[in-house]
Write a structure and sequence with these properties.
single chain, 295 residues, mainly alpha, 0% strand
Length: 295
């Protein structure tokens, strides 16, 4: 996941299975280059990514997982049917996934901020970015659907005014966002070391009266959060579209297995008061030479 060229090749190969010749592969490759530039601080108007948890790796993984979901979805529906997703919308879904956290990147006039402080409004900022990004591209006619990024906001309910196609595409992107995080083999350590700090940037953690006064409290509340709130959101608000990963993988679902394994392991550590066994470490990735992660 720390090789943008490899991710690009994988996404193209997956989309080609269902949409060869019907999506703009040049735009996809351009977008992959642009997101890399943005996180490195080389994109006009944006400063280098300083988030720890929501790094470039997460954006790349969300885009790749979205492509996999789209493949499973397309294999399950007639392309010409009412529930079909065409090549343009499939590409849009991947781009929205790729840029879904772009709102955490500071703008030129925001150098005094820490990016995670923008968390409460970063989805809205992501929509704004995509509204400025799509004009002049082959997806310019779909600029109104940049709003679908909002579905990745955890407390957001998709409006009844959204069409079935919009709700489905938004659900695929938002599901990829969650599944790619929780199934990460470094998820538990990243929650403790990175997500806690990001939460502290906007008052959700780090203070005695905050939801997570310390990182241990965050870990203690994680199993219930994943098994309760997030599972319900995946199954209900996002219409259970994660089932299409199993279609893509011909019956297997390593993401579900990894999520269960992470939560089960954390429960065991909490029961034994042995959180010190969380010893893996990961380095935030924003492009450049891949960083080796330690087991």
């Amino acid at each position: 996941m720390e090789d943008s060229d490899a991710v690009e090749a994988a996404v193209c190969a997956i989309l080609d299975r269902q949409y060869a010749g019907s999506y703009d592969v040049t735009l996809l490759r351009s977008a992959m280059a642009d997101v890399l530039r943005a996180y490195r601080g080389e994109y006009p108007g944006l400063l280098r990514c300083d988030a720890l948890y929501h790094d470039l790796r997460h954006s790349l993984e969300t885009a790749l997982t979205t492509a996999r979901l789209l493949d499973g979805y397309a294999a399950s529906h007639s392309p010409n049917g009412a529930a079909g997703i065409d090549g343009d919308h499939a590409l849009l879904g991947v781009l929205l996934a790729l840029f879904h956290d772009i709102g955490l990147l500071r703008r030129d006039a925001e150098a005094d901020l820490w990016g995670p402080a923008l968390t409460p409004i970063h989805e809205e900022r992501g929509v704004e970015f995509m509204q400025a990004y799509l004009p002049g591209t082959t997806l310019s006619a779909l600029i109104g659907e940049t709003k679908l990024i909002m579905a990745t906001k955890l407390v957001y309910k998709m409006p009844d005014s959204w069409t079935m196609e919009e709700r489905t595409l938004a659900s695929l992107v938002a599901t990829a966002d969650l599944v790619s995080q929780i199934s990460d083999r470094y998820y538990l350590e990243k929650c403790r070391d990175f997500l806690f700090l990001e939460f502290s940037a906007f008052g959700l953690a780090g203070k005695p009266d905050s939801l997570y006064p310390d990182s241990q409290t965050l870990l203690e509340k994680t199993p219930a959060f994943v098994e309760g709130f997030l599972q319900k959101r995946l199954d209900e608000e996002y219409q259970g579209v994660r089932r299409y990963l199993r279609v893509h993988m011909a019956g297997a679902d390593p993401w579900e297995e990894a999520m269960r394994r992470n939560v089960s392991y954390l429960k065991t550590l909490l029961e034994n008061n042995d959180l010190d066994r969380l010893r893996r470490s990961s380095t935030p990735y924003i492009g450049g030479t891949p960083q080796a992660a330690s087991d």
